[in-house]
Amino acid sequence: MTLKDPGAQLQADLGRSSGGAFVVLFWEWAITFDEEVELIWSKDKRSWLKWLFLFARYFIIMVQIWNRCLEAAIKYDYSLNANKLKALYSCQVIVAALSVSSLEIVLMARVYALYRQKRWLGFMLISFFFAEFIIAVVTAVVYIPGKDFTPTTIIEHLPVSFAYFGISSVAFQCIILILTIYKYLQSDLKAVPLVKLMMRDGTLAFVMLTIFVLFAVVYTLCNIAFAVTTYAWLLSAVSCTTCRLILNMQRIPLSHDAPYTSTTIQFTTIFTDRIAYEDVFNSRDHGDSRHSNSDP
Known about the structure:
The chain has two domains: 11-252, Rhopdopsin 7-helix transmembrane proteins; 258-296, no CATH class. The protein has a two-stranded antiparallel ribbon with strand order 1-2. The protein has helices at residues 6-41, 48-75, 82-114, 119-142, 153-156, 161-185, 193-221, 227-250, 267-271, 280-294; strands spanning 264-265, 277-278. Helix 1 packs parallel to helix 8 (227-250). The protein is mainly alpha-helical.
């Protein structure tokens, strides 16, 4: 009886897991494509939400295809330039940062709208957003692989820069979640379908991202080979979650004309590009006023 080569078996296992992540991503695209055509393609070309959705979906699909092709080329000993492979290895964290940024932009926009577009909040969120991306770029440049780098490194290990990026990403997500929960608990928004959806989806997005990022951080710091598969699953999860968040917002029923409407929160300027929702902070006061005026 012959024993299998442990290295070959490891690469096979990693390939199956990463391939599974791509299959999930493709399946999600297939089952939501009709909604994408109906709700996203019909948007005006100037809609930032449309382009963010297309980026989150098709950029990550292209990255996953590229990664699977590169993986196959390395396994079958295709002649590849070592310096270019080093650059690709280091840039994986930048690709992850770009992918995660699409999800973070949606969550940031939700919080910004929930707080009535406060300038201080917008400045704070943007500052954290760029700080996270700068960390990814700087660590990618600093932690360039040395002479011990081989082509198989790119399919068996993640660069240590993922640990720094992952920690900063989780910290930023915690800030967004805390801001959302605080506003949700401190205001009369709990019965509003739009805000309930924001709270539910935002919490699920936080849990999903935290799980995959923490696995990537721990596996990378411990030099565990399966960190590579967490990268593939993180990309797929981010794409699916971002697209679902956007699609869910598009399914919110349109608001109808009401006899008492105060100032409006332009959720649709941010999320649907079609309609405006009533300002739930003041609708109760107007409702009381309407009932008092109808009394004999």
